[in-house]
Amino acid sequence: MMIAPLRYIYILSFSLWTIKCCFASSVDPTTTTTINGKIQLPDSLPKVEGKDSSLPSVVITLNHGEFSTYSTVADGEFSFQNVPPGVHVLDVHSPEYIFSQVKLQILPESIDEPKCIEYAYPGGTKHVITEIKPITLTAHGRYQYFEPKPTISVFALLKNPMVLMMIVGAGLMVAMPYMMEGLDDDQKDQMKKQMEAQQDPSKMISSLFGTGDAEKSTKTNKKLKDKGARKKRE
């Protein structure tokens, strides 16, 4: 009872396989093309100490993985074979360098001359690639996964207010003797009194609010009153 259904399944599978083989043999091989390309590094890219300046082999895909290949280590060349007509997206999956995304439009009537549009980043400004044999892609830069270490700079120290106060204080100390030479004796005495008053906080506060002059005037008035009272008694 179970032999008949299995026989039908085998016959159906064989028929489908035969149809598939016939369809594959009937496909015109001229409807597909080969896409050749090359990736390279710019001469202006700074070199990193301890790293090889050559471009390593990276994965390159069409249509987000429908076709995939690797670039050669020697010259960065790559190739996609049996690519059908249509619009294809080419991506370079490099973990170290930044490459543009390229959209390819392959038409049946000009299958060996695809139209290539380069995008520096998805949604960015487009740029038409004229050199398509091979399609040459140059890296824009290097990925920065870590923040660079801050370097010691004189300008960074000058931004510190404490450093600025120290510089101003040192400048005043150096310039003070030269400033004192141009003063006369009265001005020197007045400056000395001001410096002495600054050493005593109470005198400095009284001079600011004018209480020191009032106290002196009251003391002189008391002295005059005492002298007048003594003269009357005599």
UniProtKB/TrEMBL annotation:
GO CC terms, sorted: EMC complex
Molecular function GO labels: carbohydrate binding
SUPFAM superfamilies, per database record: Starch-binding domain-like
Membrane-spanning ranges: 162-183
Protein name: ER membrane protein complex subunit 7 beta-sandwich domain-containing protein
Region described as Disordered: 186-234
Alphabetic keyword roster: Membrane, Signal, Transmembrane, Transmembrane helix
Family classification: Belongs to the EMC7 family.
Biased composition, class Basic residues, residue ranges: 219-234
Pfam families: EMC7_beta-sandw
Domain ER membrane protein complex subunit 7 beta-sandwich: 55-165
First and last residue of the signal peptide: 1-24
Key word Amino-acid biosynthesis present: no
Main location: membrane
Location of the protein in the cell: Membrane
The UniProt record lists the keyword Metal-binding: no
Membrane-protein topology: Single-pass membrane protein
